[in-house]
Specification:
Strand order of the largest sheet: 2-8-7-4-5
Number of strands: 8
Radius of gyration: 22 Å
Number of helices: 1
Largest sheet: 5 strands, mixed
Strand content: 35-45%
Structural class: mainly beta
Helix content: 10-25%
Oligomer: single chain
Distance between the termini: 69 Å
Shape: elongated
Order of helices and strands: HEEEEEEEE
């Protein structure tokens, strides 16, 4: 027997499930008439966080490419161009440690045409990140070793998630993962 109270609970649960499904549509390209592809090319894989004035440490880590490809031959027109609106940066340790910098989301405004490739600038670390955990443990005054792994380097992946929509309003999303190593006074960035 279903009472009025049970029916209200079921209705609220159903509405919550529908709401969560509508949010998850943002994380797929399936409904969009285009494929949105985010790739990276690394030029630096090891970052020496010491203030040794290595010119390689002042350069970009690499390039991020944003591509929009049609799903079929009928796809085209300005309404399938993609406006990139924001990105999220998060981190995952690959060396057995668990402490990572805080993730964050930033706004961006870049338009990528169908069949085109665009390069955009993404900040992969917040200002001051290297003076906070987990990187601060690599400093000589703090022992020069990661507090969790007891190694003189930290390995992690930067996960870059990029969000946007076609000019017709279809959500698009893709991500790329960038592996990096961090050390202190280990011969510069390379």
């Amino acid at each position: 027997m279903i009472t009025t109270r049970t029916l209200k609970v079921l209705t609220i649960a159903a509405l919550a499930a529908i709401g969560s499904l509508s949010c998850s549509s943002e994380l797929t390209n399936n409904a969009a008439p285009v494929e949105f592809i985010v790739t990276h090319t690394s030029t630096v894989n090891i970052l020496d966080i010491s203030p040794n004035n290595d010119p390689e440490c002042e350069s970009d880590l690499g390039t991020i490419q944003l591509r929009v490809l049609p799903k079929n031959t009928q796809t085209g027109g300005n309404m399938t161009n993609v406006r990139v609106t924001r990105y999220k940066v998060s981190y995952r340790r690959t060396d057995g440690g668990t402490v990572v910098p805080a993730s964050y989301v930033r706004a961006i405004d870049t338009l990528v045409g169908v069949g085109a490739t665009a390069a955009a600038t993404f900040n992969l670390f917040e200002l001051g990140a290297f003076s906070q955990a987990p990187f601060v443990s690599l400093l000589p005054q703090n022992g020069g070793r990661d507090a969790e792994t007891l190694r003189p380097l930290i390995r992690l992946e930067v996960i870059l998630e990029v969000f946007g929509e076609t000019l017709a309003g279809d959500n698009v999303y893709d991500s790329t993962t960038i592996p990096l190593e961090f050390c202190y006074d280990c011969g510069g960035c390379r």
